[in-house]
């Protein structure tokens, strides 16, 4: 299923797919679009493991207070790093296979995938500057 995203450059609404061979660009102006998707058990492989760009996976649940604190920061990364990072949100309540396969025991858990494999993880709610520093360091350590 695709989501609809407004282009940060020209404001035109575009459909952004869960997975694609490249990265989403605006149909009107060609600017890179934020790639923020909701992924479940069935789509995880195609949307995350076969992604052509690094993927930050946010494993969360609607009832989780710390998850709600981290979510805007993580979603902001999708906007800030349009064209170079995909953010995939996984609801642990409705995606038990993803949670089990990754041995998720605490949420929020952030998984960073580069080249189809998990290269780093961050567990628990952390302040925005700390999450940004972690993400920057891990992306630098695992170039794609």
Automatic annotation (TrEMBL):
Q: Which domain of life is it from?
A: Bacteria
- Give the UniProt family note: Belongs to the thioredoxin family.
**Domain Thioredoxin residues, every copy:** 27-140
Q: What is the name attached to this protein's record? A: Thioredoxin
Classification via PROSITE patterns: THIOREDOXIN_1, THIOREDOXIN_2
Organism of origin is Lysinimonas soli
The protein's UniProt keywords, in alphabetical order, are: Disulfide bond, Electron transport, Redox-active center, Transport
């Amino acid at each position: 299923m695709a989501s609809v995203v407004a282009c940060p450059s020209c404001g035109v609404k575009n459909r952004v797919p869960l997975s694609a061979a490249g990265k989403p660009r605006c149909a009107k102006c060609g600017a890179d679009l934020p790639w923020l998707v909701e992924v479940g058990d069935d789509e995880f492989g195609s949307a995350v493991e076969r992604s052509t760009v690094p993927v930050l996976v946010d494993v969360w649940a609607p009832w989780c207070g710390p998850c709600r604190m981290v979510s805007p920061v993580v979603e902001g990364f999708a906007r800030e790093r349009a064209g170079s990072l995909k953010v995939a949100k996984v609801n642990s309540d409705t995606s038990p296979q993803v949670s089990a396969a990754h041995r998720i025991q605490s949420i929020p858990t952030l998984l960073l995938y580069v080249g189809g494999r998990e290269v780093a993880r961050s567990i628990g709610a952390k302040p925005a500057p700390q999450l940004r520093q972690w993400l920057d360091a891990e992306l630098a350590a695992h170039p794609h």
